[in-house]
Design brief:
Strand content: 15-25%
Low-confidence stretches: none
Radius of gyration: 19 Å
Order of helices and strands: HHEHEHEEHEHHHEHHHE
Mean pLDDT: 95
Bound molecules: S-adenosylmethionine
Shape: globular
CATH class: Alpha Beta
CATH superfamily: Vaccinia Virus protein VP39
Number of helices: 11
Distance between the termini: 43 Å
Helix content: 25-40%
Structural class: alpha/beta
CATH architecture: 3-Layer(aba) Sandwich
Number of strands: 7
CATH topology: Rossmann fold
Amino acid sequence: MWDPATYLRYGDERSRPFFDLVARVAADRPREVVDLGCGPGNLTAALATRWPDARVRGVDSSPEMIERAVARGSAVDFTVGDVRDWSPTPETDVLVTNAVLQWVPGHEPLLSRWARELPAGAWLGLQVPGNFDAPSHRALRDVARLPRWRDRVADLLRDDPVRDPAGYAELLVGAGCAVDAWETTYVHLLPARDVIDHPVLRWMEGTALRPVRSALGDGPDWAEFRAELGDRLEKAYPVRAGQVYFPFRRVFCVARTGARS
Ligand SMILES: C[S@@+](CC[C@H](N)C(=O)[O-])C[C@H]1O[C@@H](n2cnc3c(N)ncnc32)[C@H](O)[C@@H]1O
């Protein structure tokens, strides 16, 4: 289950890659714009502001996220759905999927299918975290593999669920697109003064830690796991002058579909 409030804790930092992604989507007057895995809808609403004449849709498999998105009261059409079941219409000129595909095992064939089904000249923009080898995620996998937790959580965490920029570029060139792919490492400076828990732990609670929490429940097991991970994160990301430096690599790919025969 996704918790929109926990996810939005670092909303400013989390939204920046979205804007860096869509800055490279040069659609002029798209007819339909779709945000797949739209989450709480705050960023989808920005798509409606940018393209006011487009029909803008947001799709997410989490009813909690869609409830939050609908409650915003924008002109966007939000629906609960799985991205794996989604197909473009003949008018889908822009498809954006931001920080979603890392949760979708085997998403590569999906990307190829979308690229082939979208109309000619459509734009497909994706962004995924590329930090699965960062100290935060290594610490998470190390704790999950301790004998105490291994049987219940180790299999929930994949070592590397995404490709690098060249990998996505090759995939989408293979589907007949013109491609722009890159990576950026943001250094998020997270305040540590007025929070009890380590800020990287708080960040991870909104995303990467979600499956672990679901498996362990909200009781003492979760508290113990969280404390163990918190200790490791404190060493990996020490507090300096009241803040933590949290480097976060992100992978981007923007593709434009070719002519249709
Ligand atoms: C990290 S959030 C990103 C939300 C939003 N795109 C943003 O950038 O703020 C990931 C979202 O992907 C959604 N998601 C994960 N797997 C999905 C799937 N198979 N189909 C639809 N949505 C999915 C989750 O429910 C969650 O809202």
